[in-house]
Protein backbone atom coordinates (compact mmCIF):
# COMPACT_ATOMS: atom_id res chain seq x y z
CA UNK A 1 0.00 0.00 0.00
CA UNK A 2 1.09 3.55 -0.69
CA UNK A 3 2.81 4.93 2.50
CA UNK A 4 0.83 8.12 2.24
CA UNK A 5 -2.42 6.15 2.02
CA UNK A 6 -1.37 4.09 5.04
CA UNK A 7 -0.69 7.26 7.00
CA UNK A 8 -4.09 8.60 6.06
CA UNK A 9 -5.75 5.35 7.17
CA UNK A 10 -3.98 5.44 10.52
CA UNK A 11 -5.11 9.02 11.00
CA UNK A 12 -8.71 8.03 10.36
CA UNK A 13 -8.50 5.10 12.76
CA UNK A 14 -7.03 7.34 15.45
CA UNK A 15 -9.71 9.96 14.91
CA UNK A 16 -11.98 8.42 17.56
CA UNK A 17 -10.43 6.85 20.65
CA UNK A 18 -12.26 3.71 21.75
CA UNK A 19 -13.15 3.92 25.45
CA UNK A 20 -13.66 0.41 26.78
CA UNK A 21 -12.76 0.69 30.48
CA UNK A 22 -13.56 2.95 33.43
CA UNK A 23 -9.90 4.04 33.51
CA UNK A 24 -10.06 5.18 29.89
CA UNK A 25 -13.36 6.95 30.59
CA UNK A 26 -11.82 8.90 33.46
CA UNK A 27 -8.79 9.67 31.31
CA UNK A 28 -11.12 10.99 28.62
CA UNK A 29 -12.89 13.22 31.16
CA UNK A 30 -9.57 14.75 32.15
CA UNK A 31 -8.70 15.73 28.57
CA UNK A 32 -8.20 19.43 28.00
CA UNK A 33 -10.73 20.98 25.68
CA UNK A 34 -13.92 19.48 24.24
CA UNK A 35 -14.51 15.75 23.80
CA UNK A 36 -17.40 14.40 21.74
CA UNK A 37 -18.35 10.85 22.72
CA UNK A 38 -20.34 8.70 20.29
CA UNK A 39 -22.28 6.36 22.60
CA UNK A 40 -23.25 3.31 20.56
CA UNK A 41 -24.88 -0.09 20.97
CA UNK A 42 -22.87 -3.22 20.25
CA UNK A 43 -25.49 -4.68 17.91
CA UNK A 44 -25.44 -1.68 15.55
CA UNK A 45 -21.94 -0.27 16.02
CA UNK A 46 -20.73 3.35 15.97
CA UNK A 47 -22.34 6.00 13.81
CA UNK A 48 -20.26 5.79 10.62
CA UNK A 49 -21.90 8.70 8.72
CA UNK A 50 -20.41 11.25 11.16
CA UNK A 51 -16.78 10.11 10.78
CA UNK A 52 -16.20 12.33 7.73
CA UNK A 53 -17.74 15.28 9.59
CA UNK A 54 -15.46 14.70 12.57
CA UNK A 55 -12.44 14.43 10.28
CA UNK A 56 -13.41 17.70 8.61
CA UNK A 57 -13.91 19.43 11.98
CA UNK A 58 -10.53 18.28 13.28
CA UNK A 59 -8.84 19.63 10.15
CA UNK A 60 -10.67 22.95 10.42
CA UNK A 61 -10.26 23.70 14.12
CA UNK A 62 -7.05 21.84 14.92
CA UNK A 63 -6.21 18.98 17.23
CA UNK A 64 -5.34 20.73 20.47
CA UNK A 65 -8.78 21.27 22.05
CA UNK A 66 -11.12 18.97 20.10
CA UNK A 67 -11.27 15.22 20.68
CA UNK A 68 -13.58 12.44 19.52
CA UNK A 69 -14.24 9.14 21.28
CA UNK A 70 -16.29 5.97 20.93
CA UNK A 71 -17.95 4.24 23.88
CA UNK A 72 -20.11 1.12 23.77
CA UNK A 73 -22.95 1.49 26.27
CA UNK A 74 -22.77 -2.17 27.32
CA UNK A 75 -19.08 -1.93 28.25
CA UNK A 76 -19.25 0.94 30.75
CA UNK A 77 -21.38 1.11 33.90
CA UNK A 78 -21.48 4.89 33.63
CA UNK A 79 -23.42 4.50 30.36
CA UNK A 80 -25.84 1.87 31.67
CA UNK A 81 -28.87 4.08 31.17
CA UNK A 82 -28.06 4.46 27.47
CA UNK A 83 -28.23 0.71 26.82
CA UNK A 84 -30.82 -0.56 24.39
CA UNK A 85 -31.45 2.80 22.75
CA UNK A 86 -31.45 2.69 18.96
CA UNK A 87 -30.89 6.42 18.35
CA UNK A 88 -27.24 7.54 18.16
CA UNK A 89 -26.26 9.68 21.13
CA UNK A 90 -23.37 12.16 21.22
CA UNK A 91 -22.22 13.43 24.62
CA UNK A 92 -20.13 16.60 24.82
CA UNK A 93 -17.71 16.84 27.76
CA UNK A 94 -15.52 19.74 28.83
CA UNK A 95 -13.54 19.89 32.06
CA UNK A 96 -14.98 16.49 32.97
CA UNK A 97 -18.54 17.85 32.84
CA UNK A 98 -21.41 17.21 30.43
CA UNK A 99 -22.07 20.42 28.50
CA UNK A 100 -24.28 19.27 25.59
CA UNK A 101 -26.12 16.27 24.16
CA UNK A 102 -27.14 15.60 20.56
CA UNK A 103 -29.34 12.65 19.61
CA UNK A 104 -29.43 11.36 16.06
CA UNK A 105 -26.88 11.67 13.25
CA UNK A 106 -27.85 15.26 12.54
CA UNK A 107 -24.71 16.60 10.85
CA UNK A 108 -25.67 20.31 10.81
CA UNK A 109 -26.67 20.22 14.48
CA UNK A 110 -23.53 18.28 15.43
CA UNK A 111 -21.32 20.75 13.58
CA UNK A 112 -23.04 23.76 15.17
CA UNK A 113 -22.85 22.20 18.64
CA UNK A 114 -19.15 21.40 18.23
CA UNK A 115 -18.33 24.94 17.14
CA UNK A 116 -20.50 26.54 19.86
CA UNK A 117 -19.18 24.34 22.67
CA UNK A 118 -15.58 24.64 21.49
CA UNK A 119 -15.86 28.42 21.50
CA UNK A 120 -17.43 28.34 24.97
CA UNK A 121 -14.63 26.10 26.28
CA UNK A 122 -11.95 28.34 24.79
CA UNK A 123 -13.47 31.27 26.67
CA UNK A 124 -13.53 29.25 29.89
CA UNK A 125 -9.87 28.32 29.49
CA UNK A 126 -8.84 31.85 28.53
CA UNK A 127 -10.97 33.86 30.95
CA UNK A 128 -11.57 31.40 33.77
CA UNK A 129 -15.34 31.57 33.58
CA UNK A 130 -17.78 28.83 34.59
CA UNK A 131 -18.92 26.12 32.22
CA UNK A 132 -22.64 25.76 31.55
CA UNK A 133 -23.11 22.20 32.78
CA UNK A 134 -26.27 20.27 31.90
CA UNK A 135 -27.96 17.02 32.84
CA UNK A 136 -29.00 14.73 30.02
CA UNK A 137 -32.77 14.35 30.33
CA UNK A 138 -32.46 10.59 29.82
CA UNK A 139 -30.15 10.28 32.83
CA UNK A 140 -32.11 12.86 34.79
CA UNK A 141 -35.31 10.84 34.36
CA UNK A 142 -33.66 7.66 35.60
CA UNK A 143 -31.93 9.43 38.49
CA UNK A 144 -35.21 11.03 39.51
CA UNK A 145 -36.92 7.64 39.61
CA UNK A 146 -34.07 6.10 41.58
CA UNK A 147 -34.16 8.96 44.07
CA UNK A 148 -37.90 8.58 44.56
CA UNK A 149 -37.70 4.84 45.09
CA UNK A 150 -34.83 5.29 47.54
CA UNK A 151 -36.63 7.97 49.55
CA UNK A 152 -40.04 6.39 49.97
CA UNK A 153 -40.02 2.98 48.33
CA UNK A 154 -43.18 3.88 46.44
CA UNK A 155 -43.67 4.29 42.70
CA UNK A 156 -44.45 7.99 42.75
CA UNK A 157 -42.71 11.21 41.79
CA UNK A 158 -42.07 13.72 44.56
CA UNK A 159 -40.75 17.19 43.87
CA UNK A 160 -38.81 18.25 46.93
CA UNK A 161 -37.51 21.57 45.65
CA UNK A 162 -39.53 24.70 46.25
CA UNK A 163 -40.02 25.46 42.57
CA UNK A 164 -43.09 25.83 40.42
CA UNK A 165 -43.35 23.37 37.53
CA UNK A 166 -45.04 23.36 34.16
CA UNK A 167 -45.71 20.84 31.44
CA UNK A 168 -43.96 21.07 28.08
CA UNK A 169 -44.77 18.81 25.13
CA UNK A 170 -42.76 18.52 21.95
CA UNK A 171 -45.58 17.58 19.61
CA UNK A 172 -45.66 14.76 17.04
CA UNK A 173 -44.98 17.11 14.12
CA UNK A 174 -41.65 18.18 15.63
CA UNK A 175 -40.72 14.68 16.83
CA UNK A 176 -41.33 13.06 13.44
CA UNK A 177 -39.06 15.63 11.80
CA UNK A 178 -36.22 14.78 14.19
CA UNK A 179 -36.27 18.11 16.07
CA UNK A 180 -36.55 16.74 19.62
CA UNK A 181 -32.86 16.95 20.57
CA UNK A 182 -32.48 20.40 19.03
CA UNK A 183 -35.52 21.76 20.89
CA UNK A 184 -34.40 20.20 24.18
CA UNK A 185 -30.99 21.82 23.78
CA UNK A 186 -32.63 25.22 23.23
CA UNK A 187 -34.83 24.65 26.30
CA UNK A 188 -31.77 23.99 28.45
CA UNK A 189 -29.84 26.90 26.96
CA UNK A 190 -32.78 29.19 27.80
CA UNK A 191 -32.35 28.43 31.51
CA UNK A 192 -35.02 25.79 32.07
CA UNK A 193 -34.31 22.73 34.18
CA UNK A 194 -35.83 19.42 33.05
CA UNK A 195 -37.10 17.47 36.06
CA UNK A 196 -38.16 14.47 34.03
CA UNK A 197 -39.04 13.55 30.46
CA UNK A 198 -40.33 10.70 28.39
CA UNK A 199 -41.30 9.99 24.80
CA UNK A 200 -44.57 8.19 24.11
CA UNK A 201 -47.63 8.20 21.90
CA UNK A 202 -50.72 9.71 23.50
CA UNK A 203 -53.99 7.79 23.56
CA UNK A 204 -57.20 9.26 22.21
CA UNK A 205 -58.80 8.95 25.65
CA UNK A 206 -55.94 10.94 27.20
CA UNK A 207 -56.18 13.72 24.64
CA UNK A 208 -59.96 14.00 24.83
CA UNK A 209 -59.66 14.39 28.58
CA UNK A 210 -56.64 16.68 28.18
CA UNK A 211 -58.61 19.06 25.93
CA UNK A 212 -62.03 18.45 27.50
CA UNK A 213 -62.52 22.10 28.42
CA UNK A 214 -62.34 22.85 24.70
CA UNK A 215 -64.79 20.17 23.63
CA UNK A 216 -67.26 21.37 21.00
CA UNK A 217 -64.83 23.79 19.40
CA UNK A 218 -64.48 23.45 15.64
CA UNK A 219 -60.89 22.18 15.56
CA UNK A 220 -61.10 19.88 18.59
CA UNK A 221 -61.16 16.65 16.58
CA UNK A 222 -58.29 17.76 14.37
CA UNK A 223 -56.14 18.59 17.40
CA UNK A 224 -56.91 15.31 19.17
CA UNK A 225 -56.11 13.36 16.00
CA UNK A 226 -52.81 15.20 15.58
CA UNK A 227 -51.72 14.65 19.17
CA UNK A 228 -52.37 10.88 18.81
CA UNK A 229 -50.73 10.59 15.38
CA UNK A 230 -47.25 9.71 16.65
CA UNK A 231 -44.89 9.97 19.60
CA UNK A 232 -44.63 13.18 21.60
CA UNK A 233 -41.86 14.12 24.02
CA UNK A 234 -43.19 15.12 27.44
CA UNK A 235 -41.15 17.20 29.87
CA UNK A 236 -41.66 18.69 33.31
CA UNK A 237 -39.87 22.04 33.51
CA UNK A 238 -38.70 24.23 36.37
CA UNK A 239 -36.68 27.40 36.16
CA UNK A 240 -33.74 28.74 38.16
CA UNK A 241 -32.77 31.74 36.06
CA UNK A 242 -34.55 35.05 35.49
CA UNK A 243 -37.42 36.71 37.31
CA UNK A 244 -40.35 35.19 35.41
CA UNK A 245 -42.20 32.21 36.84
CA UNK A 246 -41.70 29.04 34.84
CA UNK A 247 -45.21 29.03 33.30
CA UNK A 248 -44.85 32.54 31.91
CA UNK A 249 -41.25 31.99 30.85
CA UNK A 250 -42.11 28.80 28.95
CA UNK A 251 -45.11 30.37 27.21
CA UNK A 252 -43.01 33.35 26.15
CA UNK A 253 -40.27 31.03 24.90
CA UNK A 254 -42.82 29.04 22.84
CA UNK A 255 -44.22 32.20 21.24
CA UNK A 256 -47.70 32.82 19.77
CA UNK A 257 -49.78 29.72 19.07
CA UNK A 258 -50.04 30.30 15.33
CA UNK A 259 -46.60 29.72 13.74
CA UNK A 260 -47.30 32.40 11.11
CA UNK A 261 -48.03 34.96 13.84
CA UNK A 262 -44.97 33.76 15.76
CA UNK A 263 -42.72 34.29 12.75
CA UNK A 264 -43.99 37.86 12.42
CA UNK A 265 -44.02 38.82 16.09
CA UNK A 266 -41.42 36.57 17.78
CA UNK A 267 -39.11 35.10 15.11
CA UNK A 268 -36.78 33.64 17.74
CA UNK A 269 -39.53 31.67 19.49
CA UNK A 270 -39.80 27.88 19.23
CA UNK A 271 -43.07 27.98 17.33
CA UNK A 272 -41.65 30.43 14.82
CA UNK A 273 -38.65 28.16 14.22
CA UNK A 274 -40.26 24.73 14.34
CA UNK A 275 -43.99 25.20 13.73
CA UNK A 276 -45.53 25.09 10.27
CA UNK A 277 -49.24 25.79 10.47
CA UNK A 278 -52.03 25.21 12.95
CA UNK A 279 -52.24 22.81 14.72
CA UNK A 280 -48.67 21.81 13.82
CA UNK A 281 -46.98 24.37 16.05
CA UNK A 282 -44.29 22.06 17.50
CA UNK A 283 -44.73 22.62 21.24
CA UNK A 284 -47.35 22.81 23.98
CA UNK A 285 -47.34 24.65 27.29
CA UNK A 286 -49.77 24.92 30.18
CA UNK A 287 -51.78 28.14 30.26
CA UNK A 288 -51.34 28.87 33.97
CA UNK A 289 -50.37 27.27 37.26
CA UNK A 290 -53.73 25.59 37.76
CA UNK A 291 -53.70 24.19 34.23
CA UNK A 292 -50.13 22.93 34.74
CA UNK A 293 -51.16 20.94 37.79
CA UNK A 294 -54.18 19.48 36.00
CA UNK A 295 -52.18 18.49 32.92
CA UNK A 296 -49.29 17.06 34.92
CA UNK A 297 -51.70 15.02 37.05
CA UNK A 298 -53.22 13.60 33.87
CA UNK A 299 -50.03 12.78 31.95
CA UNK A 300 -47.74 12.06 34.94
CA UNK A 301 -50.22 10.47 37.41
CA UNK A 302 -47.40 9.31 39.70
CA UNK A 303 -45.84 12.74 39.92
CA UNK A 304 -46.68 14.35 43.29
CA UNK A 305 -45.80 17.92 44.14
CA UNK A 306 -44.26 18.83 47.45
CA UNK A 307 -46.58 20.89 49.63
CA UNK A 308 -43.95 23.61 49.55
CA UNK A 309 -44.07 24.04 45.77
CA UNK A 310 -45.60 27.48 45.15
CA UNK A 311 -48.54 27.78 42.84
CA UNK A 312 -47.55 29.51 39.61
CA UNK A 313 -49.52 32.74 39.23
CA UNK A 314 -52.42 32.85 36.82
CA UNK A 315 -51.26 33.95 33.39
CA UNK A 316 -53.80 35.57 31.10
CA UNK A 317 -52.62 35.86 27.52
CA UNK A 318 -54.03 38.20 24.88
CA UNK A 319 -56.85 36.38 23.11
CA UNK A 320 -55.88 37.85 19.75
CA UNK A 321 -52.68 35.80 19.56
CA UNK A 322 -54.38 32.41 19.96
CA UNK A 323 -57.54 32.25 17.88
CA UNK A 324 -57.39 28.60 16.92
CA UNK A 325 -60.36 27.70 19.11
CA UNK A 326 -62.48 30.81 18.74
CA UNK A 327 -59.91 32.97 20.53
CA UNK A 328 -59.08 30.30 23.08
CA UNK A 329 -55.47 29.19 23.50
CA UNK A 330 -56.07 25.69 22.21
CA UNK A 331 -52.90 24.81 20.40
CA UNK A 332 -50.82 25.02 23.55
UniProtKB/TrEMBL annotation:
GO terms for biological process: CTP biosynthetic process; GTP biosynthetic process; UTP biosynthetic process. Pfam families: NDK (PF00334), Thioredoxin (PF00085). GO terms for molecular function: nucleoside diphosphate kinase activity. It comes from the Eukaryota. PROSITE patterns: NDPK_LIKE (PS51374), THIOREDOXIN_1 (PS00194). Residues 163-307 form the Nucleoside diphosphate kinase-like domain. Belongs to the NDK family. This is Thioredoxin domain-containing protein 6 isoform X1.
